[in-house]
Fold each of these.
Amino acid sequence: MLIQPLINRTFLLIFCYFVKNLLYFMLNNMFYDRNTSLLEPMNAEKMEKQIGPIYIVSGGKGLAGNNMVHSLLIQYPNNNVPVIIVPDQYEEEQLTDLVEKAKKEDGLIAHTMVNRKLRYFLRKECEEQGVKHIDFMGELADYLDEKLQIPSLQSPGLYREIHQQYFDRIEAIEFTLNHDDGMQPQKLVNAEIILTGVSRSGKTPLSVYLAMYGWKVANIPLVNSIEPPKELFEVDPRRVFGLSITPGQLISHRIKRLRSINNTDNTKYVDEKMVMLEIRNANFIFEKGGFTVINISNKPVETSANEILNTLANRFEYRGHRLDSPYPQDE
């Protein structure tokens, strides 16, 4: 019976102590100048804390450290702290130069060095030069070394290398969603596959399906009386696929769409003569651009996707993916 009141009182004392120290910190570091009376508020210029840059140092690409730093910086609105990623640090000389630079700029070094020798060297350099540093990996790595008794590979970027296919897929999906339905036509040149066709011909479902397998896809809608973007005729036509569909199936798809949005009054959208005209105009554009025509009528999306991918594989290196060659290019 006496224990609970004692616990409550202890908790209250700890809470009051915490609040007291928090208020003291705020008064002395945030709202008032140390060199003025507590009754004199700081002006706007003095309230802006100017600090040096945060250098994110890594033997890989610095993505893990960058995420850590930004996940904390976002808690401080309008902080304007410069963040500089310094990737691919393999040599002691690189780290020495970086520490000297950070010292001159009153910066902080946050690092994710998985190579033990370089990690210890960087920590030593920072301490000798008086540069503030934060080791995201060291303490955990030392703990795992002790507990697991397994030699560490100490290979920078290993996680991303092993999971590269996953990261490529995410990048492809983001690209495809950002280039759906004619968005950003100026970036069509970056697409690996470009789909074009009339409304409800299956461009978006096919685009997303291909993106799930790591392909960067853009799609361009063809609408009567509206010129397609000029970029559609400037890209490599071997990467452009025109989606063809029978009038009956197209009308069926459009009726379902109109019902789903409760817009059955739009008879022009499903008028047979208008649909026939749209399909004819789309075929003219396919022929003008020299695009490959894929008939998607009564086909599951995976069948159309396989047809496109097999065509690309026969036309390009790397089965159609845009990849940099690992071999040196002759000048």
Note: Strands lie at 54-57, 83-86, 108-111, 133-135, 193-198, 217-222, 240-244, 292-295.
Amino acid sequence: MKSYREQLNPREKSEDKCCEDQCIDLKGGNKVCLNCGMVFDVHLVENERRAYNNEEMEKRKQNEPRWREFGSRTVLPNHKIDYKGHYLNAEKKTLFLRLSKIQNSLISSIERNFWEAKPRMKQLTSKLNIPEYIHETAWKIYTLTAKKKLTMGRSIEGFIAASLYVAVRVHEFPKVLEEISDAAMIPRKSIIQSLSLLLKEVLPELNLSYKPISITQLIFKFGNELGLPMETQKNALYLVSITSKMGLALIGKDPKGLAASAIYLAAKSTNERMTQTKIAKAAKITEVTLRSRVKDFKNKLGLVE
């Protein structure tokens, strides 16, 4: 009976050609012919061994990071055995403990800051499904912020969230401040305080322009989250365009409230069953704000209930 590996690799020992001009290359762990697309071999990767406590984690650890992206490239491990598997004696344990303390004393405060901030920003970016190029811009902003010592005496979490939000606004990615605040689990006020410092001190040096989120982006964002058809979203966009030409003041008002009210009126005109509570929850505003903006639209359009 053939093994599982032999069943997956039926052509492993075969020398038959798939086409006249055979050109085999390794693509994604598979041997593939570039001309006809025939897969000749599948490389299986063994699963990592599981560990359920600290002792098993130490025993089954297969590799150890030997360098970092910044700071000292040498990492002194906490193992009590040498490379041959022999236990260290008391003298060598004392020596390595002393070397570890000396190494830690040579690490600067900004390196410690980066070691703490880098994984947090990566976790926040992954949690919000933000692309890698925005993460790189956010890390560049935070790096300059730390080098200018703006984080001293202030919240590191606030600057991480603020840097990510600034990068989102620079690249015009449809994310609102409330989403980043909820994902980072810090108050919105803390992010705004850090945001003001970034806009004054950091962005001019990086030659980056902060672009506030537009009503158009919010209409499509909220419409997709609510599952509304494209026709309703276009009607909401047309409603905003018409009322702005008629003199509706858009400056100085929260764009989330304007976008949500336009979506509500457009859904009502196309007979889409959508409640004020559901729309306000998606836009992260109160129902009072939604009703006030709807009233402004109706007054400008001359609609009287």
Note: Residues 7-14, 63-67 have pLDDT under 50 and may be disordered.
Amino acid sequence: MSSTKPDDSSPLIAGLVPKWAVAAFAVDVFFVLLFAFAGRQSHDSGPALVVLRIAWPFLIGLAAAWAVLIWRRWPAARAWPAGVIVWLGTYVIGMVLRGLSGEGLAPAFLVVSLLFLGLTLVGWRGYVSAKLHYRSRRVG
């Protein structure tokens, strides 16, 4: 993995050079789609488009949370505050849109989605932060 530090001419997006910002956003999208896919597998074995029907409110929440990261210039790869903002923004906006669209909000779904999205959206950031911290201490 090459350095996430920009050269002097690189603009930053959410605290990262553009290619790493795109990669971080793609990881978040992957986990939201994995969440929707797992839900589809558990409850509805219909067509693959069901995944998008489940995912769309959370993808909008994810995009809104990322807009906050970019606006505030918070480093997107950090667990705090970026990971928590992405997690809670994705969850809250996703659930509001899901409810407004007439989809179910069963208590078990609320809990499972809160835990899954928290574990994945904050978790990968915690792992990357720990890995970079460990690597910098070994080199330095």
Note: The mean pLDDT is 89.
Amino acid sequence: MRCQGRRRGYRRGEVMPKIGQLYDQDFILWTEEQAAALRRSKGSNLPLDWENLAEEIESLGISQRTQLHSQLRRILHHLFKLEASPAADPRAGWRATIRDARAEIQDLLEASPSLRREIDAVVKKQASRAAKLAAADLEEHGELVDAV
């Protein structure tokens, strides 16, 4: 993921934190910055596996993105079931699942605030997948899936 023009996650006029601070303030942005720095340092005479180091650091950030996708899909999945199902018994469990997923997302965004800018696109991407999951769940329990 290349940064072009300005560093990712920072607007014009904002001061970018020092590298050590960035690790604590926005982990995913730190992983992107570190991977890019390693790739730029390939010519160094240090006997390090530069490309694989960069990929490993990037993968740490990718796992946070994957968690965001998963938790948003989980929320949408249960919201669709709440909307479409007349069943009373499972509703409290679905709401609990939504609260838990929201807490997980809050933790992710605290660790990596730059993920916040991706939420709208992730919701759009995950909505159809979540709807299919909800429809399959409801169908397994003999409910109509037209509303999903």
Note: DSSP finds five helices and no strands in the chain.
